[in-house]
What we know:
- By secondary structure, this protein is of the alpha/beta class.
- The chain is 42% helix and 15% strand.
Amino acid sequence: MGPLNPTLVHTQAPPVMEARRWLAEATLPPDMPLLNVSQAAPTAAPPLPLREAMAEAVMAEGQAHLYGPVLGLPELRDTLAARIAAIYGAEVGSDQVAITSGCNQAFAAVAATLAGAGDNVILPLPWYFNHEMWLSIQGVEARALPTGDDLTPDPDAAAALIDDRTRAIVLVTPNNPTGTEYPDALMAAFRDLARSRGIALIVDETYRDFHGTDGAPHGLFADPDWDDTLIHLYSFSKAYRLTGHRVGALATSPTRLEQVEKFLDTVQICAPQLGQHAALWGMTHLASWLAEQRLEILARRDALRAAFQRLPGWELLGSGAYFGYARHPFETASDALAQRMVREIGVLALPGTMFGPNGHAPAAREMRFAFANIDARGIAELADRLGRLRA
């Protein structure tokens, strides 16, 4: 075998795949069918009208089978720009929007325009592991920004981490893994910090469609010069159940998009055409359906909060979007506890140790529960099973 890239070798293994190995190696309790709360992705198919529209596109849209524009279908870029402008009460042009192969690629693309080996990017803890993994692969330091029990990052603490190799601060809201929604004033404070220090503020709003606040979740786009600092990431996968079709997006300055285009053309040329057609149809036809899905997710969030209030020893630190993030009451570290949970109570969840650097002490007591695929009854069953765990 030839040489291996050391930065890739030293990057952690994909956490969801690791959890699936635990499942493959475990024997579930005979009276407890699997409760899989490990992955924040809907497993249900897209709604039938959307699938019918996709089938029609397969048959009738010849362009859906060919390379498309690197930055995305013009109609989808136009529609998304208008949607962002409408949500945030802002001016956003289609020349400030690009379509990517999922939101992970959107992050990778903008990170590639910002940082190279030896640079650093600030990630609040607990972080979304794929963000850290991409930076690691590129030789970019993921500079950890600790958070307190409220799981919100402190701009002053972030300012103390910035040096002459810092290229960006990343905020995910609603947060993955914690579900925490960052308030408008906090977002503005981070924007002001980033602008004053000449770095970028990357805001990943993959779960925006399930935000607990009606209307605009923040005012960053209302700034007429938003694109000199803000880089916005979004995903159609969660909104329209298109995870396998890989459709994400980003909004930034036209100048940065010129560099993004180089990255996308080199990696994949264009986002999957069928997925882009599906996202466009969803945006123009499924507003009422998506609003109903949001209310269902918010109801599940409330059910999770109520269930944890009745669960002795456990402390729910954050909840929102698809997530609950909790502190467990056991001496066992969360990575070992997560494997025990599969064997003893048939629950597959991800430990906090997957969402931070090695040795980060709080993570050993923390666990993420993703409730995208369990309803209120399933959440009650989850709490019941957690209550059966013993030290």
